[in-house]
Design a protein that fits this description.
Chain lengths: 94, 336
């Protein structure tokens, strides 16, 4: 089952913030400056968090939140002024 | 969920960070592993061993095709399977139930072939006499085919199927402009572009149906109509019959009608015999086949809307239930 997570963060330090954003961009879709949509299942998200994202953060100063979105929630999302929530393509021919 | 086709020789695929990195001609593209449910690999593509292990471990179906579109093989990781279905399948070979099932699948194919011709017949308002005649002829055969009060033999099924196929393919030419030179079905090798498309498309469909057979718990090599010819995935051929017109023939018609493919997309085979689909043509055709497979249609047995590829799986599961319960309540999937 595929899932989508909405992940957002506040990172106090520029260097840490850039590093985190770069790592998140590898598996997520950036939708705003500090907001990402991540098409991962729970295990995948946890793996990314523990292996790649949390080590960058200093949780005394920074924070990160991940909200799950299921199929129905995703359809009810309201979006103005930016692309609609990320949908994987049906097929890719390379 | 995404289907990824890797068609270009020289492509390399690597794994990093839950992503596949596909490199070709100095360009690279990243795809999220979590979104993939099927990867189709044409000859000449290199998958790193790490990619292979992740495909296996994450249960991403991976198919390998030959240059001519035929099935070459697939990756098989450990998977959930139900031996009960396979045992029931073995028991039904050469039984009246097996033959009735074969008849049912063939009947459904002919019905779908007729539905395609009927569409053309409506477009042309019945002005093409030959087309109208074939539509009626196929209708007559399907009614004869349907009568289940008498047991049927494999030869009888084969006979009716053969006649229907011949007249169907001859009448199919009324879908195509004359300069495509299509007059009927020929293969091994195909001698005109439309036949090249059909052959290639049936190969791709067979590969997809192979996966469906495994997912539904079957042994792909033991069938009911095509039965037990060695070295041939007989059940795959049986179960794909009703989907040939639905997926492949419709895709060919759509491409020719939209003009997305032209005779320049084909080339003579290297040995001079027959005609092949070129590299770009293959990509275009795969995209059209995918559009047909992802098309969402009403699936009456469950009264919900499913994509054609999901319907293929549901039909196969239904066959499985018939075999286990020894009761033929199967109904073919029909084009409207």
């Amino acid at each position: 089952m595929s899932h989508l997570w909405l992940v957002c963060y506040d990172v106090a330090n520029n260097k840490r913030r850039q590093k985190l954003a770069k790592r998140m961009e590898r598996v997520c879709q950036r939708v705003q400056e500090s907001v990402f949509e991540c098409p991962l299942d729970e295990a995948g998200l946890t793996e990314q968090l523990e292996r790649f994202w949390l080590p960058v953060l200093d949780v005394r100063e920074d924070s990160l939140r991940a909200y799950p979105m299921d199929g129905r929630t995703k359809q009810r999302v309201k979006v103005y002024g930016s692309p609609p929530p990320y949908e994987p393509p049906d097929f890719v021919i390379l | 969920m995404t289907t990824l086709y890797l068609t270009e020789p020289g492509t390399t695929v690597q794994y990093q960070n839950n992503n596949l990195t596909v490199k070709q001609n100095n360009q690279s593209r990243c795809l999220r592993m979590a979104e993939l449910d099927l990867v189709v690999v044409m000859p000449g593509v290199q998958l790193s061993s790490v990619v292979l292990s992740h495909l296996l471990d994450q249960g991403v179906e991976t198919l390998f095709l030959k240059q001519n579109g035929q099935f070459r093989g697939r990756l098989q990781g450990s998977f959930a399977t139900n031996p009960e279905i396979r045992l029931a399948q073995y028991r039904c070979v050469d039984t009246p139930l097996g033959l009735d099932l074969a008849r049912s699948l063939m009947l459904s194919k002919v019905r779908n072939q007729r539905a395609l011709l009927q569409r053309r017949n409506r477009d042309t308002q019945g002005r093409i006499t030959e087309l109208t005649e074939v539509v009626d002829l196929l209708a007559a055969y399907t009614t004869g085919f349907q009568r289940i009060d008498t047991p049927i033999t494999r030869n009888a099924i084969m006979g009716i199927e053969g006649i229907c196929a011949r007249v169907y393919y001859q009448a199919l030419r009324h879908w195509f402009p004359e300069d495509w030179g299509f007059t009927g079905r020929n293969r091994q090798p195909p001698r005109d572009p439309i036949n090249a498309l059909l052959s290639w498309g049936y190969g791709v469909l067979a590969s997809r149906m192979f996966v469906v057979c495994v997912q539904a718990g079957f042994d792909p090599y033991i069938g009911f109509f095509h039965a037990i010819e060695p070295y041939r995935p007989n059940l795959v051929l049986d179960l794909m019959e009703e989907f040939r017109p639905v997926v492949v023939d419709q895709a060919v018609i759509a491409m020719i009608q939209a003009g997305t493919i032209s005779p320049e997309d084909f080339e003579p085979a290297p040995d001079g015999e027959g005609i092949w689909l070129g590299a770009l043509g293959k990509k275009l055709f795969l995209a059209e086949l995918e559009r047909q497979l992802t098309k969402v249609l009403l699936y009456p047995p469950q009264d919900r809307r499913l994509s054609v590829s999901q319907i293929m799986l549901e039909q196969a599961r239904w066959v499985g239930r018939c075999l286990v319960s020894q009761n033929l309540d199967y109904e073919g999937f029909g084009l409207k």
